[in-house]
Design goal:
Radius of gyration: 33 Å
Order of helices and strands: HHHHHHH
Pfam family, one: VIT1
Mean pLDDT: 77
Subcellular location: Vacuole membrane
Shape: elongated
Oligomer: single chain
Largest sheet: none
Strand content: under 5%
GO biological process, one term: intracellular manganese ion homeostasis
Catalytic activity: Fe(2+)(in) = Fe(2+)(out)
Helix content: over 70%
GO molecular function: iron ion sequestering activity; iron ion transmembrane transporter activity; manganese ion transmembrane transporter activity
Number of helices: 7
């Protein structure tokens, strides 16, 4: 009877409702909003950004300065354009060859260092070494980027001088276009490398102004000294 009375204590209207909690499966997982990936290593871009920015600035400054120097003593537009075109071809070839040799030298040095480390580590991890090799700079890529970038930069002052007959206006336009292009190239390099944009633009602009001013001033000085061209 006691056992029967104990069983009767259970409420008559009591109903057990099973409660289940959803598991974190692929079917019921809530969609997550993708966040911006800040884990990208921008140092991987360093090699080709350096080659491209250096080539563009070098082409722009070299050809613009060359044309400004020639324009300081000669007003003939054909002479300026011929000098600028010669500077474009020679500079692009020089940049490509120089960049290829320098980067290939760096490549050989790093490969030799990796081999020495493998010998010290009794073989080391081959997969890790292969991964390191893939991150090494490409000489051909750097050379091509430098040549193309140099040509792009050099075309700017050439186009600026090609359609203007007045000598003083032509000189002013070349200097103005070169300045604008320097700011653009500096901004592109800063944007790709995620570096301060204003600082980069000011740096390349001041450097370009100095190169053009020095070339113009020295050539004008030599021309005024009595040397005939």
């Amino acid at each position: 009877m006691a056992a029967q009375g104990a069983r009767d204590l259970t409420p008559i209207g009591h109903i057990e409702i099973p409660v289940s909690f959803p598991l974190a499966t692929d079917q019921n997982r809530l969609p997550q909003v993708p966040e911006e990936d800040d884990s990208f290593d921008y140092s991987e871009r360093t090699q080709w950004i350096r080659a491209a920015v250096l080539g563009a600035n070098d082409g722009l400054v070299s050809v613009a300065s060359l044309m400004m120097g020639v324009g300081a003593v000669k007003q003939d537009v054909k002479v300026m354009l011929l000098a600028g075109f010669a500077g474009l071809v020679a500079g692009a070839c020089s940049m490509a060859i120089g960049e290829f040799v320098s980067v290939y030298t760096q490549y050989d040095i790093e490969i030799s260092q990796m081999k020495r480390e493998m010998m010290k580590g009794n073989g080391g991890n081959e997969n890790a070494e292969e991964a390191k090799k893939k991150k090494l700079p490409s000489p051909a890529q750097a050379a091509i980027a430098s040549a193309i970038a140099f040509s792009i930069g050099a075309v700017v002052p050439l186009l600026g001088a090609a359609f203007i007959g007045e000598h003083k206006v032509r000189m002013l336009v070349v200097a103005l276009l070169a300045s604008i292009a320097l700011v653009v190239f500096g901004g592109i390099g800063a944007r790709l490398g995620r570096t301060p944009m204003i600082k980069s633009c000011v740096r390349v602009l001041i450097g370009g102004w100095m190169a053009m001013a020095i070339t113009f001033g020295l050539t004008k000085l030599i021309g005024s000294a009595g040397l005939e061209m």
